[in-house]
TrEMBL record, chain A:
Binds 4 [4Fe-4S] clusters per subunit. [4Fe-4S] cluster 4 binds at residues 124, 145, 148, 151. It comes from Phyllobacterium brassicacearum. Residues 1-20 are annotated as: Disordered. Keywords: 4Fe-4S, Cell membrane, Electron transport, Iron, Iron-sulfur, Membrane, Metal-binding, Repeat, Transmembrane, Transport. Residues 40-59, 103-135, 136-165 form the 4Fe-4S ferredoxin-type domain. [4Fe-4S] cluster 1 binds at residues 49, 52, 55, 191. This is Formate dehydrogenase subunit beta. The gene is fdxH.
Length: 314, 199, 812
């Protein structure tokens, strides 16, 4: 079995990473750290996942969120989508394999992929609202968030969600508070079958190799690792039995990449800060400054559409 | 006490060949860092740990309950978090969606806090003191037992049974409670006695 | 479980049938994924639904609920036909060679001795030929047509792959694939584990479902070995313990049985229990019965249990019927024959079958007492909750007292898991409000009742006033005191029977294990199989040492496993007749010429020679039983019977309805739908979902979020036939009740072709009621029939008939 992380200590400990380890900060520049920390990753082996939702449960408990009790809409997915209170979600797909005629119940844990090249961060107009640490974590800083929602548009995986309570964006933090004390994410700890494991990115790739070999021995010739290069690779990766068809897993993007508009814009304005942000985004930010509440007007929305392109997929 | 929490048991016990994640290798050096503004303070700091097992299914996963306050010191203790016990051979720290949400069972709004009584024909529960509730229960029991206890059957055989009041035993109480319950129920001569093994 | 959760990692093949381990026991299922990942083990799931266990299986085979015996006997037939039998094991370790009496036969679906009016058998012909020497006669050559093996071969021969397909609806190619994979485990170096749960027990022939697989496992030589076994995955955290400690109508602790009224005295009681060996040199462990029995009586009544009063034998209540199980209790209530009912952590209004009958029954009680950490529907059965509990409180005269108890987080003690591990736990939180421990509540009831008898007198107070209750605080016995009682102690100094100068246990000390117990009243022991749990070494249940030499998965120093810390039952059978492991890579215990030793506590006398003493010492034969003699009510072999409510008639015995030996109360039969009923054409089944635990977690916010609302599951085919849409409302009704639910329309349920007829399955999860955080809903028990298994009365929750139609939703 993959070696579990020992039980946490309850004694105060200095954090193992912090602001000095930032490699990116939205709409601002950072001084890159002299030495990059070892990159970490969460590996989600869809072939071992039993769809139990322990990850969702552990996520709610650890992050002290309080999702609404919904209804049944004829499927097992609950809540029905990611929300500001539900950072991860099991998405269930019933797929009949045309080659074997067997039903395959594909269950994918959806949530932030912690892209090496994060579209959310690049699209974010608010200085320091989204940060990336050198270990790979992409985290939201709520104090700095203006709730404009550009991160959603910029995300090739459609992950962040804006809270109606505090009007800021929420998503998986990779349990940065746990990682800071040497623990793994709450979902990975809970996962009964170790379909979710956590470690260094290299370790995760090696572990995935073993899983892929096992899957191939069971007839899944196209088993493979999902670590999409279009976003520079991710710090949350999947082992898929059908890596040639990621879209059958509840529309996992086949070749996710940041919208060319965001890219083009960023190409010019990288780390340049608010002053050189595109006019449209700046309008949105100014709107926030004068109106106070973190609302995004229709005009902002339109601007954002222009900025980040239309829908992300397929 | 055996409940002392070791943090290195399986790391120490695990033999060669186990893919061990070396946490140090995460690149977390020994340099002290200030808490980043985005990173929440670790919420288990300075809590009290107590070892328990999950009360749901029969896998009996090990759990650790984290509390403010320490019962062992005679303090009031409020459980603030529950997580899998990595030292447990079966679950190795993992928990299912029920086990991972145990805190919300402990703190459920519908946890019962006071004895209640519903009188015949009434449409509501009313508070009753423990003392009164227990006295009432044993009065009802004794009246029925005295009226319906069968000492001998029609053949004159001593049977000493009581079948007009029954007892359903739980499925998640301890073995020790089970034995105390067994003694109390059987000594009264009750035969209508079952547990939840079948449902 | 014969084995443990962590032992599953040692297997080569996992068969999940009659259960859904991935959903109901996710963290135990981990060891299946470990076996798959590390040993290349394969997983087979056989289930009417494509479950979350099936989602990670190598092979999934659909089966019509209630036809498991036909499937399993089909696999046994396949193994016999294809010579896939672990012959050395079968010949030496089973009763295959035993010769059966001439009168025994099976014909037209019935075994010899059936009495239709009693719905019961005269089992006298279900027996071996006993020689003049008092031993059972055997034929080691297996040529005698009356030997068990040949009778079995004939008995299973009708269950061909074609017949399995016709009865079970399992496509022939799927069945053959499963049979072939299973049969490969007849090799001494390959093993299979069976993981099952209430998918097998909740049938009117539940016990025989399990026997069928046990027989298959014996034929493959998979009992007693690492990675093998019959692994019952218990549904609740301590239902193993509650059963071990004997909290059932007919039990005493440790699987001793309560006397019946035919056993008029101690001697007549003992005469049917201390089985004499049926083979020369054999150890028959139940010969120690009297030691365990007397020690239990001493734990109950201490110094009041004396040799003169036969250790208070008369104080035990004597049974007039086989058992007062929960079904009989509600039947008696409904007949107005009961006054009071006390429910400790049990919610029968949702957990027992035929809710209409349950409500009527509870309404006839004078009083009901509930003890629970959570609010329950049972405690509020009299309260109107609209369609979810449509009663008129003013018409219900039952007095209800609801007592708040602590939960796991606030109390101390041990729970016994499925793998028989007794694990101690500690309290970590202050109870809410005035909630009290169950120990305190039970003690209060006892001491107050005792006080009333002392004060007022009354009928036969002797067993109450003399109950041994010498706890430090009689108002609340501590968990440790009770655990020590379970372990047992010596009243007088015990000497070694073979060497009277040697002291085994000093007076007043706790016994090291049940081997020290005596039948003369010099020892007490609350539950002999738990003896050793808290001996003079301390609280062994609290042990937390994770060492596991050679990583066998035994974890012998973690907690305490009954009996005597043995981790795998029947482990002697892991070695051959010379005492060498069948599979050297899975060595468990071996014979070194002098004694048995290895990774586990030997399940045999340490010096019992392998060629002389059989491994199954709890049986007087010393071997396991493919033919079970008269020990089961419905037959010495399993046979296919349809559920009492079945969409088809019984193909192999058309005149037999249901299990012919199952108990059916008058009035309940009329409430069964006819076989192949047109009024109720669909085959329903009930089950748990992984997001919830029974009726508890609807009180838990997070779990209510994860699965908020009651639903039923049907195939796309049935949905289109009935005009039901995904997420729409449906009404589902049986001959006993009606419910409303959301519809989940899924490819995971498919119609089964049974003998040319398409059988549609309707899946009905439990978990919803009218208390808690989740949306109000119904339980399947509003629909299910009031009938249980022939042997142990487990309600037939897994196979019944319903109808279904789309309906409008509730008015907002």
């Amino acid at each position: 079995m993959f070696q579990p992380v020992p039980n946490p200590s309850t004694r105060p400990e200095p954090p193992k990473f912090g602001d000095q380890d930032l490699i990116r900060r939205s709409a601002s520049t950072v001084t890159p750290p002299a030495q990059r920390q070892t990159e970490v990753a969460k590996l989600i082996d869809v072939s071992k996942c039993i769809g139990c939702k322990a990850c969702q449960s552990a996520c709610i408990e650890w992050n002290d969120t309080h999702p609404e009790i919904g209804i049944n809409t004829g499927v097992y997915d609950n809540p029905h989508d990611l929300t500001p209170d539900m950072f991860t979600l099991m998405r269930f797909s019933e797929w009949e394999n045309p080659e074997t005629n067997n039903l395959e119940w594909l269950i994918r844990k959806d949530g932030c992929m912690h892209c090496e090249d994060p579209g959310c961060l690049k699209a974010c107009p608010a200085p320091g609202a989204i940060v990336q640490y050198s270990n790979g974590i992409v985290d939201f800083v709520h104090e700095n968030c203006i709730g404009c929602g550009y991160c959603i548009k910029g995300c090739p995986f459609n992950i962040p969600r804006i809270s109606k309570v505090d009007h800021t964006a929420y998503k998986c933090t990779l349990c940065s508070d746990r990682l800071a004390v040497g623990q793994g994410p709450a979902c990975a700890k809970a996962c009964p079958t170790q379909a979710i494991v956590f470690g260094t990115k290299e370790e995760m790739k090696q572990h995935a190799e073993g899983r892929i070999t096992d899957l191939k021995s069971r007839g899944f010739a196209n088993a493979g690792l999902y670590d999409p290069p279009g976003v520079g690779g991710t710090h949350v990766m999947y082992v898929l039995h059908h890596a040639d068809k990621p879209e059958i897993y509840a529309d996992l993007p086949n070749n996710p990449r940041i919208s060319p508009i965001v890219e083009a814009w960023k190409g010019v304005t990288k780390y340049a800060g608010l002053a050189v942000i595109g006019i449209a985004a700046a309008t949105g930010f100014m709107h926030y400054l004068v109106s106070g509440p973190n609302r995004v007007s229709e005009a902002d929305e339109e601007a954002a559409e222009k900025l980040t392109g239309e829908e992300r997929r397929p | 006490m055996n409940m002392e929490l070791s943090r290195r048991q399986f790391l120490g016990a695990a033999g060669a060949g186990v893919a061990g994640t070396a946490l140090g290798a995460f690149g977390f050096g020994e340099i002290e860092a200030a808490h980043a503004e985005a990173i929440r303070a670790f919420k288990l700091v300075n809590t009290t740990e107590t070892r328990n097992t999950c009360p749901y299914c029969s896998v009996a996963c090990g759990i650790i309950m984290y509390s403010k306050g320490d019962l062992k010191k005679g303090e009031k203790a409020e459980i603030t978090h529950i997580e899998g016990d990595t030292d447990h051979p079966t679950n190795r720290g993992t928990l299912c969606p029920k086990g991972a949400a145990l805190l919300d069972f402990v703190k459920a709004e519908t946890r019962l806090k006071y004895p209640m009584i519903r009188k015949p024909g009434s449409d509501k529960f009313e508070r009753i003191a423990w003392n009164d509730a227990l006295d009432r229960i044993v009065r009802l029991m004794k009246d029925d037992r005295d009226a319906n206890f069968v000492q001998k059957n029609n053949d004159g055989v001593t049977v000493n049974r009581w079948t007009t009041t029954g007892f359903l035993a739980a499925s998640a109480t301890t073995n020790e409670t089970a034995f105390a319950t067994y003694k109390v129920v059987r000594s009264a001569g009750m035969l209508v006695f079952d547990n939840q093994a079948r449902v | 479980m014969t084995n443990s959760w962590t032992d599953i990692k040692n297997t080569d093949l996992v068969v999940i049938m009659g259960g859904n381990a991935a959903e109901a026991h996710p963290c135990g299922f981990k060891w299946v994924t470990e076996a798959k990942a590390n040993r290349g083990a394969r997983l087979i799931v056989v289930d009417p639904r494509f479950t979350r266990s099936a989602s990670v299986a190598d092979v999934y085979a659909p089966i019509r609920q209630g036809s498991d015996i036909a499937f399993l006997l089909g696999v046994i037939n396949y193994c016999i036909q294809n010579d896939k039998v672990h012959w050395d094991y079968v010949k030496a370790f089973t009763n295959a060679t035993y010769i059966v009496k001439d009168g025994f036969e099976y014909k037209d679906g019935l075994f010899s001795g059936y009495d239709e009016t009693k719905r019961d058998y005269d089992k006298s012909s279900w027996e071996y030929v006993i020689g003049e020497d008092g031993y059972a006669q055997v034929d080691d050559t297996l040529t005698n047509p009356r030997c068990v093996w040949n009778l079995l071969k004939t008995h299973v021969s009708i269950y061909t792959p074609e017949m399995v397909e016709r009865i079970c609806g399992t496509p022939r190619d799927k069945f053959l694939k499963v049979a072939e994979m299973i049969s490969e485990c007849s090799s001494p170096i390959k093993t299979m584990t069976s993981m099952y749960a209430l998918g097998w027990t909740q049938h009117s022939k539940g016990s025989q479902n399990i026997r069928s697989m046990a027989m298959l496992q014996l034929i493959l030589g998979n009992i007693g070995v690492r990675g093998g076994g019959m692994n019952a995955l218990r549904g609740h955290s301590n239902i193993q313990g509650l059963t071990d400690v004997g909290l059932m109508s007919n039990l005493l602790p440790g699987y001793l049985t309560l006397p019946t009224e035919k056993e008029v005295d101690f001697d007549s009681y003992m005469s049917t229990r201390a089985f004499k060996p049926l083979r020369p040199n054999q150890m028959s462990y139940w010969q120690n019965y009297k030691k365990f029995f007397v020690s239990v009586l001493k734990s109950m009544w201490g110094s009041a249990a004396t040799p003169e009063n036969h250790f208070a034998y008369d104080w035990l209540p004597k049974l007039d019927v086989p058992g007062y199980d929960v079904l009989r209790a509600f039947e008696l209530m409904n007949q107005g024959k009961m006054t009071g009912y006390m429910c400790q952590g049990f919610n029968p209004l949702l957990a027992a079958p035929n809710r209409t009958k349950l409500t009527a029954s509870l309404s006839k009680l004078k009083f009901l007492v509930t003890m629970d950490p959570l609010d329950t529907e049972t405690a509020r059965f009299w309260e109107n909750h609209g369609e979810f509990n449509d009663v008129d409180p003013s018409q219900i005269q039952t007095e209800v007292i609801q007592l708040p108890s602590t939960c796991f987080a606030e109390d101390e003690g041990s729970l016994t898991n499925s793998g028989r591990w007794l694990q101690w736990h500690w309290p970590g939180g202050t109870p809410p409000g005035e909630a009290k421990t169950d120990n305190w509540i039970m003690a209060q009831i006892h001491i107050r009742l005792k006080e009333l008898y002392r004060k007022e007198g009354g009928v036969f107070p002797d067993p109450i006033v003399n109950l041994d209750w010498a706890y430090a605080d009689p108002a609340e016995p501590s968990a440790e005191e009770l655990a020590k009682e379970l372990n047992g102690k010596a009243y007088a100094t015990l000497y070694d029977p073979t060497d009277p100068t040697k002291v085994v246990v000093e007076a007043g000390k706790r016994v090291p294990s049940f081997a020290a117990l005596r039948d003369d009243g010099s020892t007490s022991c609350g539950c002999w199989i738990y003896s050793g749990c808290f001996n003079e070494n301390g609280n062994n249940m609290a042990r937390r040492d994770t060492s596991d030499p050679d990583e066998t998965g035994a974890y012998s120093k973690w907690a305490f496993s009954w009996p005597v810390n043995r981790r795998i039952l029947y482990n002697r059978a892991s070695a051959d007749l010379n005492g060498k492991a069948w599979d050297p890579s899975r060595k468990l215990i071996e014979w070194d010429g002098q004694k048995w030793s290895g990774y586990d506590v030997p399940d045999i006398a340490p010096t019992a020679k392998p060629s002389e003493v059989g491994p199954f010492i709890m049986n007087p034969e010393g071997v396991s039983r493919l033919f079970v003699r008269g020990m089961m009510r419905d037959g010495p072999f399993p046979a296919h019977y349809e559920p009492f409510e079945s969409p088809v008639t019984n193909l192999v015995a058309p005149n037999v309805r249901g299990n012919p030996a199952a108990r059916v109360f008058k009035g309940d039969f009329e409430q069964f739908a006819e076989p192949a009923s047109e009024e109720f054409p669909y085959a329903a089944t009930s089950y748990r979902l992984t997001e919830h635990f029974h009726y508890w977690t609807k009180h838990v916010w997070v779990n209510a979020v994860l699965q908020p609302e009651f639903f039923v599951e049907i195939s796309e085919e049935l949905a289109s036939e009935k005009g039901i849409v995904k997420g729409g409302w449906v009404r589902v009704w049986s001959k006993r009740g009606s419910i409303r639910a959301k519809a989940v329309v899924t490819k995971r349920i498919k119609p089964l072709m049974c003998d040319g007829k398409a059988v549609h399955v309707v899946g009905i999860p439990l978990h919803w009621g009218f208390t808690g955080a989740a949306k109000k809903g119904f339980g399947p028990n509003s629909l299910t029939p009031f009938v249980g298994d022939a042997n142990i009365e487990t309600p037939e929750y897994k196979a019944f008939l319903v109808n279904i139609e789309p309906v409008a939703g509730p008015v907002a």
